[in-house]
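Quarterly update, task 2.4: iron/sulfur cluster-bound model.
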Amino acid sequence: MLLDNGRSDMLGSEFQDMLRCIRCGACMNHCPVYHAIGGHAYGWVYPGPMGSVLTPQFIGVEKGGQLPNASTFCGRCEEVCPMRIPLPKLMRHWREQEFSSHLTPPAQRRNLKAWAWLAKRPKLYHLAARLAARGLWVLGGSKRRTGFLPMAGAWTRHRDMPTPEGSTFLSQWGARKGRTGAGGTNS
Ligand code: SF4
């Protein structure tokens, strides 16, 4: 008897690359999220980045959609995968499916919409980023950590967040461009 376990459904789909997985575990061992939360947090047979792609396939994106969302998309998993499976791209496909099926919570959809609006207006975005960094710095006080994040309370429910130090990436990039005369459109 052959155990298919949903693999035939992957054939010809955007998840087909995942059929090359040999379960070596390299993606998992190099994943900063896996290192922080451990294997049991994934709640199914396969942990780590490979699990974040496989589990929604096996149990449905309605139940397993939180897994592809628990990724920073740092790309280390794809870099170390001996089968060159584009894991971040596959997780992104799950996020897209979740979003287009209206499974993401309304508040999250609203926030994403607001972020997209802001991101299309670079000057305003830079100003907002500077103000947010400054606000977090003030919130952190002398402890340089905050246990209160407006509109993101789930983040600080179980842990404090270190407050930003120094200037923003965009300010540093602007200063660097000024020094080297490098091209680019950021201001
Ligand atoms: S590194 Fe690649 S082949 Fe190895 S378990 Fe992860 S996805 Fe599968």
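Highlight for this quarter: The longest strand covers residues 145-146.
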